[in-house]
Design a protein that fits this description.
The complex is a heterodimer. By secondary structure, chain A is mostly beta strands. Chain A contains 4 helices and 42 strands. Chain A has 2 domains: 2-96, Carboxypeptidase-like, regulatory domain (Immunoglobulin-like), CATH 2.60.40; 122-327 and 337-750, Maltoporin, Chain A (Beta Barrel). Chain A has a 22-stranded antiparallel β-barrel. Chain A starts with a helix and ends with a strand. Chain B has one domain (31-128): 2-Layer Sandwich (Alpha-Beta Plaits), CATH 3.30.70.100. Chain B contains 5 helices and 5 strands. In chain B, α2 packs across α3 (81-90). The radius of gyration of chain B is 19 Å and the shape is globular. The N and C termini of chain B lie far apart (61 Å). Chain A binds chain B through residues 1-2, 5, 18, 33-34, 90-95, 106-109, 362-365, 404, 406-409, 454-455, and chain B through 30, 32, 45-46, 49-50, 53, 58-64, 66-67, 69, 71, 73, 122, 126, 129, 132-135. Chain A: Residues 122-222 form the TonB-dependent receptor plug domain. Chain A: Residues 271-708 form the TonB-dependent receptor-like beta-barrel domain. Chain A: Residues 1-19 form the signal peptide. Chain A: Keywords: Cell outer membrane, Membrane, Receptor, Signal, TonB box, Transmembrane, Transmembrane beta strand, Transport.
Chain lengths: 751, 135
C-alpha cells in the first residue's frame, strides 16, 4: 500500500508521510514473546548522536525522529546490542536477545541494485546507487554500461562522446529528465549527458516506451529520469577521486550542511582534467580530447514534514573545454588555419531551478507541486575550418495537482506547463554559412488517470493538449497497461505519441568533423525549413519472476515498435555530404529484447540479455537499415559481493560482457579506393570489469578496466593523412577508438 | 468554595460533552480513523487494505505489518466504522478493539486466508516474527 502513497507523492517529494516527528516503538524479550511483555529500562539512541530514550515499564519508548537518522541502537544490560535500520516512522517492535544465546545468523534481504517492479504499470525499472557504482566512472553518459536496456556507443572518432540509445533510437528520441525537468535536450543534446557527474546521481528511473504526459510531449522511445543526491539524505561529506592510465583525472566532493531544522544545503563540486596527449593508433590524431571541466552545484532543501511542505532550490554552473585534433595542433597559432587540423569545444552553462511541493497533512494522497527551471547554454566551437556556435536559453515550468477519485484505487494527476526555448546558432561549414535563430514556446494542459484494482490489473492513461508556436496545436495521448494473469507474471503494454522539433545541428555535431557538405531540403517548415518529427510507439512486455533451487530470478521479453509519421532524415550515404530532409515513406524501429536475471548464489548475480534491432528508414536512395546500428547484441553482467562484515567491509566484483554484431556502414563507394570501407563492420566483443574493496562504511577503493580485451577500430578517421581534403571523415565509428583503459579511485564519506 | 468549584467544573464538563456530541453529529468528509487488525505478513496487508478500500466511502487505507495498526481516511457520510470492520472480517481478519476485546472473523472467513497467513496459529506467527527480525 505504501507504494500508492509513494507514487502519488513521487513526483516531487517522496520523503513525506504522516506528519510526525517522533518514532514509537516497543522493546521485547526474545525469550518471552508470548505475552508480549516489554522490557523496561532498555536504552535506544540514534547512532552517532546523543539523542536517546529509555523504554517505559511496558517496554514502550518514544524518540524524536528526523529523516537523516537511519540507525537506531537498542541496548540493555545482559542482552545483545542491536542496530535497527529505520526508514520510516512506522512503530517498531523489536525483540532483543540475551547475550548468552548462540550467535544468530542474520540474513539481510538485500535490495537488488536494479529493480524491475512487478507492480508498476509502466515498464519501468529503477537503477539505484549500488548499480551506478559498478562502473565507477564518471558521468551520466557512462552510468548505463551495466544496464542491458540502454546501449552506449561513441558518436565520433574525436570527442570521445558517448551516445546512448534505447529501442534502437538515439538519445534525441529519449526524454532525459533531471528530477523530472527535461534536461539533456536542445543545445545540450550532444554532450549533455557528460555534464552530470556520476556521483551526483542518486538513482535513475528508466521507462521503456511512451512516457508520462506529465513531463511533456517530446518522449518517443522512452524516458530516463535521474534523481540527484539530496542535501537531507546525502553524506555530510563525500570525496571521490579517480584516475585512469589514459590520463583522465576526476575529483568529486560533496558537502552537506544543516542550516536549521528545516533547511539543509549541499555544495557539490566536480572537476575533471585530461592533459596528456595519446595517439595509440598512430594516425597523428589525439585518441581522446584534452579536457577540462568544472561543474558546481548548490542545492537548498527545505522540509517541513509537520505542515507538508518540501522545497528545492538549485544553482549550477558548468564550464567545459575540449581540445582535439592533430597531435601538434596548438590553438594559439593554428586555430582555424590549415597549419594543423584542430578543434576546440567550449561550453558554459548556467542553470537554476526551484521546486515546491505540498502534501495535504490530513490527506496523504493529495498534493500539489510546482517546478520552475531556467538554463542558459552557450557552446562556442570550431572543427578545423568549420565553426559552430550555439546559444540556447530555456525556461520550463510545470504545475501539478495529484489526488484521487473516490479512493486510492483511482488516482489522477493534472496540471499545466509552460516552456520557452530561444536558439541562436551560427553554422559555417564549407560553403554553408548561416545564422539560425528561433524561439519556441508552448503552453500545455495535461490529465493523467491511473486505475489499480489492487490485484491483477492496472492502467495509466494520459492526454495532453499543447499550443506551440512552431509545432502547432496538438494532442499527445499515452497509455500503459498492466495485467498479472498469474503469480509473479506480469504482462504490460504501452502506446503513445511523441512530437518534437529536431535540432539538426546540435544533435548531429559529429558531422562538422568531416569534409561533408551540408544540405537541407527546405520544405517551408518552421524549423530549419523542416517539419516537426512525429512518432508513435507501441510496446508489449512480459515478465516472469521465478524461484529455482531456492534462488530468485526473472525473465523478461519485450517488443517495441516506433513508427515515424514524420522524421527529419539524417542522410549520410553520400561520403561527401550530409542531407537533412523530411521523411517521405516509412521509418520504423523494431526492437526485441529477452533478459534473464538469476541469482546464482548468495551475493552472486547474473544478468544477461539478447537484443535484436531492426531500424530502417526510407532514404532518397531507397529503404536502408540505419547505419552503425548492430542488429544483434548480447549482454552479460556478473557481479559478486562477499558477505558484509560488521564494520561494513566487503569485496565487490563486477564484469560486463558485450557482444556487438555486424553493423552496416554508410556508403563510401564513391570515395577513392583507399578511403572506401566495407559494407559491414565485423562483430566484436567487449569486456569491462571492476573490483571494489570496501574497508568500512567510510572508505573504499576501486580498480577497474574498460575494454579489457583491447578492441580498437583500426582506422577510425578516414583520410587522416589529409584532414583538409575532400575525404576527411571522423564520423564512421563503430567500435572503441581507445584501447584498454585501466583506472583506479577511492571514495571517502562521512555520514 | 469547593461547591462552587464542583458546580463550575460540572458545568464545564456538561459543556464539553455537549460540544462533543455536536461534533459527532457533524459527519466528516475526511475522517481519520485508526484501529488494530490482526494479521502477520505482506499478504495479509494486501488483503486487509483491499477489503478496507473496497468499502464504499473509504478513501485511503494503510495497514502496518509490525504494529497491526490500520490507518484509514473515510467519508463518514458514506460509511461507518462497523461496515469497514465487517468487510475486513469478511476476508478473514480479526479486529482487536482492546486487550481482550476482539471482533472475531467467522471461521469460514478465517479458513479462506492463505495458509501462511494463519495469524491465530502461534507457530506461524512465530515464524513470521523471525522474518521480521531479519528485515
Amino acid at each position: 500500500m505504501k507504494k500508492y502513497i509513494f507514487s502519488s507523492c513521487l513526483l516531487l517529494f517522496p520523503i513525506l508521510f504522516f506528519a510526525q516527528s517522533n518514532l514509537k516503538g516497543m522493546i521485547m524479550d526474545k525469550q518471552n514473546p508470548e505475552n508480549n511483555s516489554g522490557i523496561s529500562g532498555a536504552t535506544v539512541n540514534w547512532l552517532d548522536t546523543s539523542i536517546g530514550a529509555v523504554s517505559n515499564e511496558k517496554g514502550w519508548f518514544t524518540i524524536p525522529y528526523k529523516p537523516e537518522y537511519k540507525k537506531l541502537v537498542v541496548s540493555y544490560i545482559g542482552y545483545k546490542t542491536d542496530t535497527i535500520t529505520v526508514t520510516s516512522l512506522k512503530t517498531i517492535r523489536h525483540f532483543i536477545t540475551p547475550e548468552s544465546e548462540l550467535e544468530e545468523i542474520t540474513v539481510k534481504s538485500k535490495k537488488r541494485a536494479t529493480q524491475r517492479s512487478l507492480f508498476a504499470t509502466a515498464n519501468m525499472f529503477t537503477v539505484n546507487n549500488d548499480e551506478l557504482l559498478k562502473a565507477a566512472c564518471c558521468n551520466l553518459a557512462e552510468s548505463f554500461e551495466t544496464n542491458p536496456s540502454i546501449d552506449v556507443s561513441f558518436s565520433d572518432a574525436l570527442t570521445g562522446t558517448r551516445q546512448i540509445q534505447m529501442l534502437g533510437l538515439k538519445s534525441p528520441y529519449l526524454l532525459i529528465t533531471q528530477e523530472n525537468v527535461p534536461s539533456v535536450r536542445g543545445a545540450a543534446q550532444a554532450f549533455g549527458l557528460t555534464f552530470t557527474p556520476g556521483t551526483w546521481v542518486e538513482s535513475i528511473q528508466i521507462t521503456k516506451g511512451a512516457g508520462s504526459v506529465v513531463n511533456g510531449y517530446e518522449s518517443i522511445s522512452g524516458q530516463i529520469n535521474a534523481e540527484l543526491v539530496k542535501p537531507f539524505s546525502d553524506n555530510k561529506f563525500f570525496l571521490n577521486a579517480y584516475s585512469s592510465l589514459n590520463g583522465r583525472l576526476e575529483l568529486n566532493t560533496h558537502f552537506n550542511e544543516k542550516i536549521s531544522d528545516k533547511w539543509q544545503s549541499g555544495l557539490y563540486i566536480h572537476g575533471n582534467y585530461r592533459g596528456e596527449k595519446f595517439d595509440n593508433n598512430n594516425d597523428n590524431f589525439l585518441d581522446a580530447p584534452l579536457a577540462k571541466q568544472i561543474n558546481v552545484m548548490n542545492r537548498w532543501q527545505y522540509t517541513d514534514a509537520q505542515n507538508g511542505w518540501v522545497s528545492f532550490i538549485n544553482f549550477r554552473y558548468l564550464k567545459d573545454e575540449k581540445q582535439t585534433g592533430e597531435l601538434n595542433f596548438n590553438p594559439e597559432t593554428d586555430k582555424r588555419t590549415t597549419n594543423a587540423w584542430g578543434s576546440e569545444i567550449d561550453t558554459k552553462r548556467f542553470e537554476t531551478s526551484a521546486k515546491l511541493g505540498y502534501v495535504f497533512p490530513e490527506l496523504p494522497f493529495q498534493s500539489f507541486g510546482f517546478q520552475l527551471a531556467y538554463s542558459n547554454h552557450q557552446q562556442d566551437s570550431y572543427f578545423g575550418l568549420n565553426v559552430y556556435d550555439i546559444q540556447h536559453e530555456s525556461v520550463y515550468s510545470n504545475l501539478l495537482f495529484n489526488s484521487i477519485i473516490g479512493d486510492t484505487r483511482n488516482k489522477f494527476k493534472t496540471g499545466i506547463s509552460f516552456t520557452y526555448d530561444n536558439y541562436d546558432e551560427l553554422v559555417e561549414v564549407g560553403t554553408f554559412d548561416e545564422n539560425f535563430k528561433r524561439k519556441e514556446q508552448s503552453v500545455g494542459a495535461f490529465f493523467e488517470y491511473a486505475f489499480d484494482n489492487l490485484d491483477d490489473f492496472s492502467f495509466t492513461t494520459g492526454l495532453r493538449v499543447d499550443a506551440h508556436n512552431l509545432l502547432g496545436n496538438f494532442i499527445t495521448p499515452r497509455l500503459h497497461l498492466r495485467y498479472a494473469p498469474w503469480e509473479n507474471g506480469v504482462f504490460r503494454a504501452s502506446a503513445g505519441r511523441g512530437k518534437r522539433s529536431a535540432n539538426i545541428f546540435a544533435e548531429n555535431q559529429q558531422f562538422f568533423v568531416s569534409s561533408r557538405q551540408i544540405n537541407i531540403d527546405n520544405v517551408g517548415g518552421n524549423i530549419y525549413g523542416l517539419n516537426p518529427e512525429i512518432a508513435w510507439n507501441y510496446g508489449v512486455s512480459y515478465m516472469q519472476k521465478f524461484n529455482i533451487f531456492d534462488k530468485k530470478g526473472d525473465l523478461t521479453f519485450d517488443f517495441y515498435r516506433t513508427d515515424f509519421s514524420n522524421q527529419v532524415v539524417v542522410d549520410w550515404e553520400n561520403p561527401q555530404g550530409i542531407s537533412f530532409y523530411d521523411l517521405d515513406g516509412k521509418s520504423v524501429a523494431n526492437s526485441f529484447q529477452v533478459e534473464l536475471y538469476y541469482q546464482l548464489a548468495e551475493g552472486f548475480n547474473l544478468r544477461t540479455a539478447y537484443k535484436y534491432f531492426d531500424v530502417s528508414t526510407d532514404y532518397k536512395s531507397g529503404n536502408l537499415q540505419k547505419p552503425i546500428q548492430p542488429k544483434n547484441r548480447f549482454f552479460a553482467n556478473l557481479s559478486y559481493e562477499t558477505i558484509l562484515q560488521e564494520n561494513g567491509a566487503q569485496w565487490k566484483f563486477d564484469a560486463t560482457f558485450n557482444s556487438i554484431g555486424k553493423q552496416r556502414l554508410p556508403d563510401t563507394r564513391s570515395n577513392p579506393s583507399q578511403y572506401q570501407l566495407a559494407e559491414f563492420s565485423n562483430p566484436y566483443q567487449l569486456l569491462n570489469s571492476q573490483v571494489t574493496r570496501v574497508f568500512s562504511e567510510k572508505f573504499e577503493v576501486y580498480l577497474g578496466a574498460e575494454n579489457l580485451t583491447n578492441v580498437q577500430q583500426k582506422n577510425p578517421i578516414l583520410a587522416s593523412d589529409n584532414p583538409f581534403g575532400a575525404n576527411f571523415d571522423t564520423t564512421i565509428v563503430y567500435s572503441p577508438i581507445f584501447g584498454r583503459a585501466i583506472y583506479a579511485g577511492l571514495r571517502f564519506k562521512i555520514k | 468554595m469547593k461547591k462552587i468549584v464542583f458546580i463550575f467544573s460540572l458545568f464545564l464538563l456538561g459543556f464539553s460533552t455537549q460540544a462533543q456530541t455536536q461534533k459527532e453529529v457533524k459527519k466528516k468528509r475526511n475522517a481519520k480513523v485508526t484501529f488494530t487488525v490482526d494479521g502477520i505478513c505482506g499478504m495479509c496487508k494486501k488483503r486487509i487494505e483491499t477489503a478496507a478500500l473496497k468499502t464504499k466511502g473509504v478513501k485511503f487505507a494503510i495497514w502496518d505489518v509490525k504494529s497491526h495498526q490500520m490507518n484509514l481516511i473515510m467519508d463518514e457520510r458514506k460509511t461507518d466504522l462497523s461496515t469497514i470492520h465487517k468487510n475486513i472480517m469478511a476476508v478473514g481478519h480479526d479486529i482487536i478493539l482492546d486487550e481482550d476485546k476482539k471482533l472475531m472473523a467467522s471461521d469460514k472467513a478465517y479458513e479462506s486466508v492463505h495458509p501462511c497467513c494463519k495469524y491465530r496459529d502461534s507457530k506461524i506467527v512465530e515464524d513470521h516474527n523471525g522474518e521480521l527480525k531479519k528485515q
